[in-house]
Amino acid sequence: MLRVRRQQPLVAYVLAAIAIVGAIAIPTGNPMFLDRAIAIEAAFTTLAVLTFMGYRRQLWACIPLAVVVMIGNSLAPPHVEIMTTFSKPFNAVILITGGYVLQALLIASTVAELRKRKKMEKPAA
């Protein structure tokens, strides 16, 4: 049975924002990496849908995925060049926003949500 929570956690909205920024970024990215970009985009979209539906186990995948995205952006020389030189301003803003700001927010909101849920599940002593 489908269960929908009244108040969605912040992590659901962050995942949705990452998916939207990623969808904007894919057409402007390198076509050689299209398959990987679509796979990551599908992962974020799936996590967003599951989180909006009220599931919680997928939250444990958010932190490693965000870390992988941040490390991947940091290790890709073309990304680093675009972000440091702003040679392509639109791409630089998208990379910084989607690759670092939203990923850091995803990590923070996921940790907060997991702590909140753990506290709610603790039996009263």
Structural class, by secondary structure, is mainly alpha
Percent helix range:
over 70%
Query: Element order, helices and strands?
Result: HHHHH
Radius of gyration: 16 Å
Mean pLDDT metric: 88
How much strand content do the residues show?
A: under 5%
Describe the main β-sheet briefly. Answer: none
Number of helices, counting only DSSP H or I runs of 4 residues or more: 5
What separation lies between the terminal Cα atoms?
32 Å
List segments where confidence is low: pLDDT < 50 over at least 5 consecutive residues. Answer: none
Taken from the alpha-carbon principal axes, the silhouette is: elongated
Number of strands: 0
Outline the structure in words.
75% of the residues lie in helices and 0% in strands. It is built from five helices and no strands. Helix 1 (10-25) packs antiparallel against helix 2, helix 1 (10-25) packs antiparallel against helix 5 and helix 4 crosses helix 5. The protein is elongated.
